[in-house]
Amino acid sequence: MTPTFRISSARVSLGGRSILRDVSLEIPAGQITAIIGPNGCGKSTLLRSMARVLPLEEGSIIFDGADIADLGRRELSRRVALMAQRPLIPEGITVAELVSRGRYPHQGLWSQWSAADEAAVARALAVTGLESVAERRLTELSGGQQQRVWLGLVLAQETKVVLLDEPTTFLDIGHQYDLLGLVEKLRDDDGRTVVVVLHDLQQALRFADHLVVMNDGEVVSTGRPAETLDSRAVARLFGLDADIVRAGTRQDLVIVPRA
Fold this sequence. Notes:
Helices cover 32% and strands 29% of the residues. The protein contains 9 helices and 12 strands. It has a 6-stranded mixed beta sheet with strand order 6-7-8-3-9-10, with helices on both faces. Strands 2-1-4-5 form a 4-stranded antiparallel beta sheet, with helices on one face. Strands 11-12 form a two-stranded antiparallel sheet. Strand 4 and strand 5 form a beta hairpin. It starts with a strand and ends with a strand. It is found in: Cell membrane. It is a peripheral membrane protein. Keywords: ATP-binding, Cell membrane, Ion transport, Iron, Iron transport, Membrane, Nucleotide-binding, Transport.
C-alpha cells in the first residue's frame, strides 16, 4: 500500500532543545497508526510537524508525492486535519457553530456557505452522534461530548488524513473507548488514514493497525502491533515488567504486569 506520509531525516528543536532527531518513517494509507513512547519523547512534536504546525529544521515530509512545505496552508488543511490537545473553547460557541468551522479551508475569499458545506456539517454531526445537542453551548457538555465535538470539526474538513493528538486524555474509560470506536469507523467506513498519539499502550494494541514507537526524539521501531511491541520493549521504554498475551472473545493483545 502506498504510504500517505514519507518522513525523511526530520529534525525539530524547541527552545534550543532538540526534540526530533533524524526521524524517518512511512505512514501507510487507509490504516490507523498509533504513535507511542515515554513522556517527552517527541510524539506530539512529530504529529504537529506532519500538520506543518511546527516547521522542520532539516529533512522533509512528503504527503502524497508533494513536500508539505510547498503546499499552501489552505490547501494542506483541505487534505490533512489536526485535532490538537486541549484546544481552547471559544466563548459562547454552540456545537454546530464549532463543527462548522471545519469548513473554513473550503471557503474562498468570495465564496458563500453552500449546500455542500451544510451537508458536510450534517454528516459530521451524525457520525459523532451530536445531532441532538447541536444547538447547545459547548461548555454545557461533558468532557466526552466535547471531544466528540472537536472530532466533528475535524470530520467536517473532509480530509483524507486525520491527525489526533492524545484524544483520550482526561476522559473516563468508557468515553475513551467510545471515541476510539469512532476512529475505527472512520477507517472502516470512509477509508481514512488516521494517525493518533496515545499514552495508553493497551489502546494502541487494541485499535492500531500500525505502530510507531519513539524514544528520546527518535523512532526506534515501526510495524504491526504484534510484531513491534513485546515484553522487552515495554520493559526498556516504560520500565514495566509485563507479559503480552491474547485474551477475551476477540483474542486481543493484552499487557499483564508481572509485579
